[in-house]
Amino acid sequence: MIISKYLLTIALCVLFGYAMARGLEMPFRAMMMPVFVASIALPLLALGLYQDIRKDQKRISDANESTGDLAMTEAEVTPEAFRRVLYFFIWFAALIAGAQVLGFLVALPLLVVVYLLLNKEPMWLSVLLGLGVLAILYWGFQVGLVLPLPRGVLITLLFGA
Q: How far are the Cα atoms of 16, 37, 58, 66 from residue 74, in angstroms, in the given order?
């Protein structure tokens, strides 16, 4: 389990590194998207890998110092891990469905607000972060990168193509 987590992170680093390298060879307008995404993803992946290594080292040292009765096994973690993965896929399916119905520009900020409210964040913070996501999507992608985000069926019916 631990090795596969590291392999996935390293594979993603290779993928985004390749996207960055290929993007730098492209004309300016074409390079904006892969370089922008890779420049965000690579530091986050490096940070995640560093935190995972530290967490695993701490868990190994704690397990070595314990009497054995307190050490956790993989079988004890599995139901919680399964629940979290299922929770992630439900939110991902909601994003895909929301993007199809409402459009990506509406669905993602809305899901951010709903997610934060369900996790008992204050209303003002949830709305503020939702508006921040909307601003990044609109000015970062549609205006800055000139990358049109998918419009949903409902938005297209209401406002036309």
A: 31, 34, 16, 16
pLDDT, one tens digit per residue, over 61-108 is 766 665 554 455 555 567 777 777 788 888 888 888 888 888 878 888
Provide the whole-model pTM.
Answer: 0.51
The domain locations on the chain are 1-71, 74-161
Q: DSSP characters for 96-150?
A: HHHHHHTBHHHHHHHHHHHHHHHTT--HHHHHHHHHHHHHIIIIIIIIIS--PPP
Residue 11 region by backbone torsions, left for phi larger than 0, else alpha for psi between -120 and 50, else beta: alpha
Whole-angstrom distance, CA of residue 37 vs CA of residue 79: 33
Query: pLDDT tens digits, residue range 7-60?
Result: 888 888 888 888 888 888 888 877 778 888 888 888 888 888 888 888 877 777
